[in-house]
Amino acid sequence: MRSKLSFASALLASAQMPVALGQLNIDINNADTLKTAAATVMKSMVNDYTSQQPFSVGLLPPEYSFFESALFFNTIMDYAAYTGDSTYNSLFEKDFFAQVGSDSDFMPSNSSQRIDNDDVGYWALAAMTAAEFGAKPANSSNPSYLSLATKVFNNYVSRWDTTACNGGLRWQITSSTNGYEFKDTQSNGIFFELSARLGAYTGNKTYTDWATKIFDWTSKTGLTDAESSSGGGVVYAGVTATGGCKNIDKSFFSAQSANYIYGSAAMYNTTKSKTWLTRATLLAGYASATYFGPQMYVDDGSSQVVVETACEFQGNCTLSQKAGKNILFRSLANAITLNAGTNISSIMPRQLNNSATAAGKSCSDQGECAFKWSDLAYNPAQTSGFGEKTAAIEAWLTILRRANGTPDLAAAQSSTPPSTTSGGGASSTGGPAPTVTQSGKPNSGATLMAGSALGLVAVVSFLQALL
Ligand SMILES: *[C@@H]1O[C@H](CO)[C@@H](O)[C@H](O)[C@H]1NC(C)=O
Ligand SMILES: *[C@@H]1O[C@H](CO)[C@@H](O)[C@H](O)[C@H]1NC(C)=O
Ligand SMILES: *[C@@H]1O[C@H](CO)[C@@H](O)[C@H](O)[C@H]1NC(C)=O
Ligand SMILES: *[C@@H]1O[C@H](CO)[C@@H](O)[C@H](O)[C@H]1NC(C)=O
Ligand SMILES: *[C@@H]1O[C@H](CO)[C@@H](O)[C@H](O)[C@H]1NC(C)=O
Ligand SMILES: *[C@@H]1O[C@H](CO)[C@@H](O)[C@H](O)[C@H]1NC(C)=O
Ligand SMILES: *[C@@H]1O[C@H](CO)[C@@H](O)[C@H](O)[C@H]1NC(C)=O
Asked: Does 139 contact ligand 2 (Cβ within 6 A)?
């Protein structure tokens, strides 16, 4: 296989490279090292954001697609929630709403950037995360996070296109835009995940029905085969709506799998249906084999480190593709939480552990991070952008969450709202507000408070800054 060969030679080259000074070495058994690493990279990343010239509030530099700004904000929230460090909460609160747009649909009219369905979608997922954390906008003139997520959901419903392929969202929103003929698994996967999370959060069947419908469409269109136990769990990029919807783009990127894994895990958690467990398990199994592949033998000879298989070996991943690992780690962490003790959580712990360790070696102690974690070193000649940094942070948070038996978002369904959030987004729909469970085991890290108190303290401090 071409990739194996090119990887082997790259590995040889990196093995001969001197180890970079000042690596962010982390010990996955020591939560303090994970928190310190995450804090270091956060600081560097936020500095990249705030020091832009010129600066557009809420936007990453112009070379980044609109969706990547949403990933940046989502990681800021995850960081606050799972480390308890509220340093960046006020920045979140101040800047997130700048890109909401006058219709609260994440299509700001004077955005300098092209906005596609997947762009809008990652903003909606970030808003959903805020809702799940129980956050409320500090400025009451701003719409609730839940209303932002449902607004996008409703827009997606109205954009569901039955004129071709018996359904599906198109990648582009307007017919005059290049790419309008493409029905992609980014946009549809986000719609699926958003529906599943809205269903879990509100208990409203409209959302879970849509999640089922979108998954069925994806499957019938031939974009995934995670339908039966004989399937392989692949998620292909999309289909061209012309020519009878037969022309499937078979490229595969980790974010495509990520959204379907998280959505399926949420659907399993909500419905307890074996069908969804099978789907989630197959999708996760495919992602495990493909994006942490057996080809990635590094370190002790058996470690499997995350790789964006379709482009990383050739070294030609685009800026947007370099954000995939961020989406992958966040989605896997959430899927694991939702299926605690079941199949998904048993699939990848070693791969996640090794990837987090590799991310530590791939970042400098100044918070710059390489994209290719299998190099196990940060080489200043490599790019170190928002994709690389948000991915490393999420990889460490994934381990931190497990180390603390962390909480979850999903606990939203079964727990009572903290009094501080009553009247927040969730209760306005009649659903319970999310809070955190307290079932974790005390962690060895002294600075982590006690056990799952981490989750609780973190979310509370996150709220304090946002309320
Ligand atoms: C839109 O333009 C106004 C006026 O120039 C500016 O204040 C605002 O920040 C811009 N919004 C976005 C989303 O760029
Ligand atoms: C609150 O939001 C509204 C609408 O965006 C804005 O006009 C107002 O200045 C904001 N208030 C504060 C204190 O930021
Ligand atoms: C469920 O969600 C849909 C879509 O947002 C909404 O139209 C409907 O009113 C909701 N139903 C209930 C019972 O809240
Ligand atoms: C999940 O794991 C259980 C226990 O190991 C196994 O019996 C079941 O077949 C698995 N389900 C799937 C969908 O792989
Ligand atoms: C990267 O290179 C491979 C192999 O030449 C090619 O198939 C792929 O389309 C390229 N990817 C990008 C993003 O250019
Ligand atoms: C749903 O998620 C919660 C919270 O993580 C977990 O405790 C529960 O076991 C999950 N349910 C299923 C069926 O996996
Ligand atoms: C992964 O790391 C955790 C510590 O964060 C440890 O408890 C667990 O045993 C490790 N799992 C594997 C498979 O190495």
From this structure: yes
Q: Using a pLDDT cut of 90, give the percent of the chain over it.
A: 67
Rg from Cα positions in the chain: 21
State residue 275 phi and psi, 5-degree precision: -55, -45
Q: Is 213 inside any structural domain? A: no
Find the CATH number of the domain harbouring 149.
1.50.10
Which residue range is the domain that position 33 belongs to?
16-159+265-270+291-466
Q: Is the CB of 319 under 6 A from ligand 5?
A: no
Residue 16: count of CB within 10 angstroms of its CB: 7
Cα-to-centroid distance, 343 and ligand 4 (Å)? 6
pLDDT digits (tens, 9 = 90+) for 256-282: 999 999 999 999 999 999 999 999 999
In a domain, 191, yes or no: no
What is each CA distance from 45 to 3, 81, 94, 378, in whole angstroms? 31, 18, 17, 16
pTM for the model stands at 0.85
The candidate with the shortest Cα–Cα distance to 234, out of 174, 291, 274, is 291
Index of the ligand 5 atom closest to the CA of residue 321:
13
